[in-house]
Design goal:
This protein has 247 residues and is an alpha+beta fold. The protein has one domain (18-243). The protein has helices at 33-44, 103-118, 138-141, 151-154, 215-233, 236-243, and strands at residues 18-27, 50-61, 67-78, 84-89, 92-97, 125-137, 175-180, 185-194, 197-206.
Length: 247
Amino acid sequence: MTWRIQHVEHQQFTRNPLDSVVGQLSFHPVLKLRDCIPDIQEQIRATFPRFSEGVHRHVIFDTAGNATVQEHPQFVFRDTQNDWRIALRMDSLIVLCNRHESHHKFARVFNLVADSVSASVELIGTRFGLRYINMIDRNQLGDMHDSPIDWKKIVNSRFLPSEFDLDLENAHFLTEIDAQMADGNMVVRHGIVEQNKYRIDLDRYHEFAVSPEETPDVIESFSQDIFSLFYAMAGPKLLEWMQNESP
């Protein structure tokens, strides 16, 4: 299956339901990374002064279903407001933003960190992914209305369950679609995950070599794809709320 998404020019709304944005560059393991942490920290410390070191645990299942837990060091950098979290592991760089302003700023921050790491060690990329996690609170949208809004006005009905008669007012569900695009894939996980809350989790990725220098252009392209699909999924009441000024 291949996504057929109508291109919609990227827009910046007055408000949005974004919970977090995550970018991840995976690369072949760099064993000397630990020795370079002081130099990397010095280059980004002005922006991300908070630092901690911990362990990342990764569970791997074999064909028989047996689990193996692998532990690897993880170095975490944060800003003073705790809006940004940078996690550096032996095989990946993860940038998480809890207060997203624009994809241009996200690209600048990601590039700052990737350049700082690349100045100390050579990164040979294997995968890049960009993920936008939206949590739509129907009660928040309902401030403009006297009664709860029909979910079909918040989320485009094409993306809601239609194979059977389902009362969405008393249901929780989560659907996942992973389909190809021209270069790589797009995964969407969406559904009513708790009372009055709808999750739209969009994950755009490709699994081939990406250099740190290429990431700004890739983020620009991926964020456009993500926006186009989000726009297609958004119902009229959600778009109305996004366009209105905050009370």
